Amino acid sequence: MDDKLMLMIPGPTPVPERVLHALAKHPIGHRSGDFVKVIAELTENLKWLHQTQNDVLMLTVSGTGAMEAGIINFLSAGDRVLVGCNGKFGDRWAQLSEAFGLNVDKVTAEWGQPLDPEHFREKLEADTNKEIKAVIITHSETSTGVINDLETINRHVKAHGQALIIVDAVTSLGAVNLPIDEWGLDVVASGSQKAYMIPPGLGFVAVSSKAWEAYKTAKLPRFYLDLGKYRKDAAKNTTPFTPPINLMVALQTALQMMKAEGLQNIFSRHQRLMNATRDAVKALGLPLFAPEGAGSPAITAVAPTDVDAEQVRAVMKKRFDIVLAGGQDHLSGKIFRMGHLGFVSDRDILAAVAALEATLRELGYEGFTPGAGVAAAARVFTTN
Q1: pLDDT tens for residues 303-328?
Q2: Which of 11, 163, 198, 343 is the most exposed place for a label (fewest CB within 10 A)?
Q3: Which of 301, 295, 351 is nearest to 321 (CA)?
């Protein structure tokens, strides 16, 4: 049946009908008085979502572009940085940092395991000369379904006193409680196609006053991603370059929906969806890739041993029009990932789990009692 596709991936995520209607409106001038009002509302609501009174800047980029902007605006070639690497995106930030001539010191963990905050503490405490200029962390490592202990790592950064903390919150912002001002996070990057519930194309960077001080002496080249330009124009509710007008109008509606739901309800919903998905997977006798206590509310990674991960994805897509994500790099073909981020409800999880049960049966896997996955998910929904 046409037009029944269901995205259960970490991004792009499903888009609400109200947001799609807003996206389809005729464009307005980006230098018009009407668009000034749109930007003013977006800025106010983005600060609400980010739990900050500092700048939250909008860029016409993906999450990777937001992270690049978050790095090049506050550092100089040769600066020593600690980069947490326990998945595809931690590795990407190390590669990006090396591309700009930074002195990269990796803090690693096996893919599927969270970063150990103690490793950061040891390196930061040993840096008596205060040579470490920044610590770069992926909060929710989408490639493995692991969430890192950002709060504890950040405490060690704060104890250092000099280093900035730069955070990839691409799949955590809007899904996980991330109190930027309370924790004193310096640079936080995210992307529109995740918890924001709109299509790809907008990136966001929240910037602290401490980071702006570092901006004054940072020497890496920048032009289109020069956040100083965006800050100056944001103060006048405008943009330095042509923005994606329709995406921003769609974001206006999405943020209104998020405010109506409320921050704590949003966070509780994502936690509930994660718990239901993980319990369902365990009830089906399938191994989870991320350990207990380190699962991401954005996505659940599954590492099947008695059924082929790519066959699961293929049948789910062909028979049920449900798209699951595969493994990346050396995990290709070894895991599949079920997204539960953004505009996802309890009903969506129940439907996906039921389809997964049918898929497993079709593939000859009999390591579960029929209905066990749906029952496990339903128990979470009826008790939370």
Answers
A1: 999 999 999 999 999 999 999 999 99
A2: 343
A3: 351
